[in-house]
Write a structure and sequence with these properties.
This protein is mainly beta and 232 residues long. Helices cover 0% and strands 57% of the residues. It catalyses: [(1->4)-alpha-D-galacturonosyl](n) + H2O = alpha-D-galacturonate + [(1->4)-alpha-D-galacturonosyl](n-1).
Length: 232
C-alpha cells in the first residue's frame, strides 16, 4: 500500500491530527500482516478490535496519540469478541512536538466495556463477552509515554455496573525499554468476574522520572511473572 498525502499546516493539534482518529484498525480480520508503518494520529496508532486473529505487526512507529490498543472490546451486548494470536515486534512509541500532537498516552493498552449496557454503539454499549489470548509485544521502545502498559475493563461504564466477562490471558511482553512521564509503569485493572491469567515479562526496563519510585498495579491477576518489582 502506498499513500502520498501532503499536510500544509501540521503545527496545529486537533486540526490536522484529529482527536479520535486512528492510524490502523483491524476488525473481523484474520491473517493480517502489517510492516513498516510510521503513524502520527490523534487517537490509537494501531487498534486491534473484535474478532481479529493471527495478526502480525512489525516495525511500527507511533508519533503521539493514545498508543497501541486492543479494543475497545465487549461493546456489543450478547456478542462475542475474540482476539487471538497477535504478535507485535519492533514498536516505537514517541512523544512529539505538542503543537502537532500533545498526547502520548500508552505503549500498549487493553480496554473492554463493562458487563452493563450503557447506551448504544457507536458511542455507547457494553455487555459483550469473549477473550483476548496469546498476545506478544516485543522489542518495544518508549519515549516519554504516560504509562507503558494499561489494561482496564470499565470503558464507557459506571461504578455500579456489572463487571466485564471478557477475559485477557497469555499476554507476553519482551525486551521493553525507554521512559515514562509518570511513576505508574504498569496498571492491570482486570475484571473481578473473570480476572486476567498468565501475564509474563522478560527484559522489561522502563524508567520513571528522576526521584520517583516505579509503581506496578495489578488487580485480579493470576500467574504474573518477570516484573522488576512487586505488582499490587
Amino acid at each position: 500500500m502506498h499513500c502520498n498525502a501532503t499536510n500544509q499546516d501540521p503545527m496545529f493539534a486537533g486540526k490536522n491530527i484529529v482527536p479520535n482518529t486512528d492510524g490502523i484498525n483491524t476488525y473481523r480480520s484474520d491473517s493480517v500482516t502489517m510492516r513498516n508503518w510510521d503513524i502520527t494520529s490523534g487517537d490509537d496508532c494501531l487498534a486491534i478490535k473484535g474478532n481479529s486473529t493471527n495478526i502480525i505487526a512489525e516495525n511500527i512507529t507511533c508519533h503521539g496519540g493514545n498508543g497501541i490498543a486492543f479494543g475497545s472490546l465487549g461493546q456489543y451486548a450478547n456478542l462475542t469478541d475474540i482476539v487471538e494470536n497477535v504478535h507485535m515486534k519492533g514498536l516505537t512509541l514517541e512523544r512529539i512536538d505538542p503543537r502537532v500532537q500533545p498526547n502520548m498516552g500508552n505503549g500498549v493498552y487493553f480496554k473492554s466495556w463493562t458487563g452493563t449496557v450503557n447506551g448504544q454503539p457507536p458511542t455507547g454499549g457494553g455487555g459483550g463477552g469473549g477473550f483476548v489470548r496469546n498476545v506478544t509485544a516485543e522489542d518495544v521502545k518508549l519515549d516519554r509515554v504516560d504509562r507503558a502498559i494499561h489494561l482496564f475493563q470499565t470503558n464507557g461504564g459506571h461504578s455500579n455496573d456489572l463487571p466485564s466477562k471478557l477475559m485477557f490471558s497469555q499476554l507476553h511482553f519482551k525486551n521493553w525499554s525507554g521512559t515514562t512521564l509518570t511513576s505508574e509503569i504498569i496498571n492491570f485493572s482486570c475484571s473481578p468476574a473473570v480476572g486476567c491469567d498468565v501475564i509474563t515479562f522478560e527484559d522489561f526496563n522502563a524508567t520513571v522520572p528522576a526521584g520517583q519510585t516505579p509503581q506496578f498495579t495489578c488487580q485480579n491477576v493470576s500467574h504474573l511473572s518477570g516484573l522488576p518489582g512487586p505488582c499490587d
